Amino acid sequence: MREIPGGKAYRLLEAGPIVLVTTADRGRANVMTMGFHMMIQHDPPLVGCVIGPWDHSFAALRETGECVISIPGADLASKVVDIGNCSGADTDKFERFHLTTLPSRAVKPPSIAECVANIECTVADDAMVDRYSLFILAVKAITINDSRRERRTLHHNGDGTFSIDGRTVDLRNRMVRWKQFQVDV
Amino acid sequence: MREIPGGKAYRLLEAGPIVLVTTADRGRANVMTMGFHMMIQHDPPLVGCVIGPWDHSFAALRETGECVISIPGADLASKVVDIGNCSGADTDKFERFHLTTLPSRAVKPPSIAECVANIECTVADDAMVDRYSLFILAVKAITINDSRRERRTLHHNGDGTFSIDGRTVDLRNRMVRWKQFQVDV
What we know:
Chain A is an alpha+beta fold. Chain A contains five helices and twelve strands. Strand 12 of chain A pairs antiparallel with strand 12 of chain B.
């Protein structure tokens, strides 16, 4: 796993991939699927995400203030849906879905070996949690798994259908106002 | 333009398309490009987005509390980038980029005829604007432009490159826990 600066989180998240989120509470890890998230700030990198009391992961996130946002490739589509359709309350999802946990660098929740990237986060602001279940997360570390062959990400259309990344359009030469964001991941 | 319920905003936004945002202040409309946005709540539909004081549209949004989130198809890629790389302070972007404005149903800022969908919004909560430039928007109306041939959306990788929607994966039959979200747009 190759580490890249946390400040490059926007390169991974702005495009809106469906993601997995790991938490760990008293040694017990869990993983959920998440589609409601966004970049909030480039530098220092902040991410917003909705995780609610209806999610088993909510209690662990509130308690520990840590999570890992893992980005699955298109090869994990079925697992991504199935993880989002069962609960950590009665299932060890890592075991059930044959996901390999790896120690993270900056936080206790595990990274996922089968994902393309793992973004380690801590809760920076929980002022909007009671009203909107909206956490503001600070990115603490990012690792990239260069060994994954399938690097296309999934975009959830909200109903169980997903768009897989297709062709890339390169318009970097037109980004005259935002040149500072032209860095390689 | 076909109207659909505002509650279907998640079908358009969860997948993370790059979007345009129109505002109007004292009769003068403007349009910007936005990549930092998310669904916050299905019903009633709430959207979070980052529009900051560095954006010319910020003042109009704060003043009027209204905007339209327009979703461009992949055919508009170059315009999307160019709109994000000049300012409404010195440019009439509708004229410069040959965008056709249409009256919106519920708000004063215009919809954009060349876009696939227009999501009309009002500011529901500005408590996080000072700290994060984060607006919470309520969706008031949505129109779909069925006449656009190009319906694939663009996903910004943060640096001026974009992924165009590719193949669709249909896993609706695995969404056993979220059946209520299986509705057609």
